[in-house]
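User: Here's a chain of 350 residues. Predict its fold as tokens.
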Amino acid sequence: MPVPTSDVGEWLLDSGIQEPGGGVARYHRADLGRNLPISVEITGYAASALVYLHGVTGQEVYLERALASAHFLTRTAWNPRAAALPFELDPPAFTYFFDCGIVVRGLLAAWRASGDEECLATAIAIGHAMAADFRASDGTLHPILALPSKHPVGRDPRRWSRSEGCYQLKAAMAWWELAEATGEETFREPYEHTLDQALRTWHSFLPGHPDGQHVMDRLHAFLYFLEGLLPVAGDPRCAAVLAEGIRRTAHYLNDLASGFTRSDVYAQLLRIRLYADWCGAAHLDRHAADSEARQLARFEAPGGGYYFGRKGGQWLPHLNPVSAIFALQALELWRTAAAGGPPVHHHLLI
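Assistant: Prediction complete.
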């Protein structure tokens, strides 16, 4: 099975998905031959991925491009006066808790690789804003705030990205990583609070919708929750949830894949299997992992990108940077594991 590291890396560098100023488009429409506008969240993911590629390949161009994305986030996206990070820049109408967490993690990845203090300072500022602005009176997290008022936007329980939920634990990992980076234990408390909320509610997240297509979307979000457990995978309670969560995800994925399936779900499930095994939380089912790796590899598009999904046997025309990034890391980690190599811990997951 081919390992897509070089192809995905070249696609990130050369396809135009990353603009000259460092911002990264939400996705590329293969049928129309054009990119969507820059996404702040996707730019955060790209910063992390480019740092990962620098670590895997040793090529300095990846670190240069990672810093370009990081500096787009620190100098263009982040508004220090308003202490706000917009969902999109034109117009800057909303800010998402999840996006903020992904951006913080991307900035910390760039800082760890380069020592760039601007990245660390902005990550700290965003982390404080997350804690100050998104906590609701009932202890849950507002998923979206309107800008510039920072008033919460109404929640929609049928749309996971517009509702509170266990998936926010991945974004809350930003606080855990900030505590590690700065030594400020005050960052640990909001992660632990979010963890406590997630452990009380995760059972009801799946299936969460009567329509199988929406359940597939929720698998993507549920895997964010499992990823967010990794800092505390040594806790027997969290290890048990990881193991059960992997089983649930695989069940729904196998049941729904013939109708609609997403490449990022295959990639995330493969990654969490590997990390849960390496953490001692859940024994690796090698047969299932190999099957998921083979299914994932089929989503690779000509030129190194990855199709977002397949519906009714047809590829959807969206070449999604996050799909490519998750596939890149999942297949690289699986190649190492299948060859009997040592665990590859690259500061948790992209």
